[in-house]
Each structure stands twice: as structure tokens, then as C-alpha cells.
Amino acid sequence: MTRRHFLDHMAGAAAFGAASFALGRTVEAAASQLSRDHKSCILLWMSGGPPTIDIWDMKPGVATGGPLRPIRTTGDVEITERLPLVAEQMKHLSVIRSMSTREADHTRGAYYLRTGYVPNPNVVHPSYGSVIAHEMEPKIAGLEIPPFVSIGGPSEGPGFLGMAYAPLQVDQSGRVRDVQALVEKERMDERLALLAEIEGRFAKERRGPAAGEHAKVLERTVSLMRSDQMKAFDVASEPTKSRERYGDSGFGRSCLLARRLVESGVPFVEVDFGGWDLHDDCFTRLDQKLPELDRGMSALVSDLEERGLLDQTVIVWMGEFGRTPRINGDAGRDHYARAWSAVVGGGGLQGGLGIGETSADGSTVESKPHSAEDLMATVCQAMGLSLQTNFTSTNGRPMKIAGGGAPISELFA
Q1: pTM of the predicted structure, to 2 decimals
Q2: Taking the mean position of all CA atoms in its chain, how far away is CA 162?
Q3: C-beta of residue 2 within 8 angstroms of C-beta of residue 170
């Protein structure tokens, strides 16, 4: 079942003028309370697999190093010269240079990094966003918009946790499809009453969990349509100076939207920034992509810090793997999962660190390697989630949160 399927039931349902907001509080007051009650996470997802050897773990002066050069930062790490604005924010961010994972295929790698589990034909695992939305549910009772939002591209789904924890996908300007006022309120209420009667009868026939999940998502969809919290998606309402700070790009607008959503209490936001599958002409294309990354990512970190939200917001930067130290005959780099880098910060994590070490040519991890499970466990612990949590999959098997990974100890004071 897809979210579009549920929305089709609404047949043009309206977003009504009167907000269904708890105790008549304003959106701003509720957002402030939600932000105090829990942490959030923003995943900057670099789909395609970026060449982290050219960005976060530079190897100048060796054959595998490429033409880019490192620069100093406000942390104890050096990064690429193409990210001068991010370099100013590195006191808040740390680079994990010892990522070593086992999947160098795009689909399998994306699944593994987003769930903490390798693909298994017998079970579909929930993604970061779905797990966090599920575990944060008791703390976000006042949140009417979905707790897991994916901006600019699809994410992994909720797996065995059910469709209630599926991501709401929006475009880079925050537009939500199919939320349009095509019928009046009275007619809409009649349709909802009829639908509730039909679905109630269906559920009583013991048709399995799908009927219950369907009703739960439909209820949340109606709440979404009627909520004033939808204003969080309106990036265009942001002051011009703020929009200029993030840059006039899809990634910049996505980062601004992510800030608006966590400020409104959304516990998990994923921002998709694709185009990193650089098998050819790698360095020319990096010259185009890295300035866009620099502007949007640096603005996000500094904006969260200035608003007092950085300690409550975990930031993760990663793709599904890295790319080969060897530069191929097309001036590109190929898929490489053996040794690469991810970046984390905020949420009380230690910033300014370079964790782990790779060999002189970047081909192997020379220190303790870290897995997708370890990275996910680190995020969960930073957000206050118990790593002893166990789920039960649809086939009855127990599944440990974050795949049973171990948090990266250096990131915790």
C-alpha cells in the first residue's frame, strides 16, 4: 500500500481553514514545545556514492589523491578546498574516516546504510526515519504533520513497522502532492464517515494488519490536510535573506526546508542530493557540485546553531559507499565500500574530530573499522533511544535496533 493509495481515498480532500491545533495554541508555541521534548535528525543523503577521498579524507601528493587540495578548518581536521564555508563549521562536525561496509551496489548499499541491515529476501527492515518516528511517537503527540519527511527523493520505507511510519515525500520546495481543496468541508465529512463505516466492517473480518495500518495512515492524512503545521513546508515564506543564505539551488532549498521541519517538531528529515555516481569526469563535476553542498550544508549547521537547535538536532552526511582511490581511464572513480568517510554532528556529539584513519593511498582502514550498524547506533544513542530495543519482524524474528551496532565512543563526551 502506498501513501498515494491512501490519498486517493480522499478524492480531492481540502485543507481546511480552521486549524485542529491542540488547545488552540499557535504553531510557533507548539513547535517550541515539541523541539524541547525530543531530538531530531537530519540525514543529508548523497545518493550515488560520493568520492569521500576528495572531500573529507584527502590524500595530497599521492597518485590516488586527485587534483584537489586540503584546507584547515575550525576543527582538528582538514577537508577539501572546495568547502570553505563548511570548513568554518567543522567545530560542530566530525568526520568518521573509518567507514568500512560490505555493499558496493547502489541498491544494496543504500538499503544497508539506511537500515543497518543487509538486504534479506525474507524480511524488509525499517529505515532510520521509520525507526526514529516509531520510537519518538510518545513524545510527539502534538505533531500533526508526518514524523518522517523525505525531501527531493525517495527513502527506504518502514518495513515491518507498518505504513504509519512511511516517509512523506515532498519536492525541494516543500510541495506536498494531492493536498488540494476540491470539495467543501460538509461533503468531505460525509465521505469520511462513509469510508470509516466501510473500513470498519472490513477490519472486523480479520483481514490481517493491513486494514489497521490503512486506517491509521488515513487518520494521519486527514490530520495533515487540516493542520496549520503545514505552514512548515512553505519555504517561500522564509525571509529573502534567509533563502539567499542557503543558496538558490535545490539542495539549498531542501536544507532550509529541513530546518523548518525540525523547528516544527519533525523528528526525522532526509534530504536527497543525488548525482554522485562519478565514474567519469569526476573532478570537473565536483567543481560544480561541491559549491552547492558547501552553501547549503554550512547554512544549515550555522542556522541551527544560531537558533539554539543544534544540540537538539543530529546531522548525518553520507552516501551508500565511497569511491575507489584508483582514478580510472575516464578520470572517474568507481564504487568502493572498503574504506570511506561519513560526517556527523549536532545532537550533543563531539565536533571537530577526525575519527579513524585510512592508509596513505586511501585503500584500507588502518584503525578500528566502523559499519553501517555502528553509525546508526551512534545516531540512536545521540537521540536518546535505547539500543536494547528489539522489534519483531513479520516472520516472527527479533530484530535489534540499529542492527545491534556499537556507538562510536569518541563522539560522546
Answers
A1: 0.84
A2: 18
A3: no
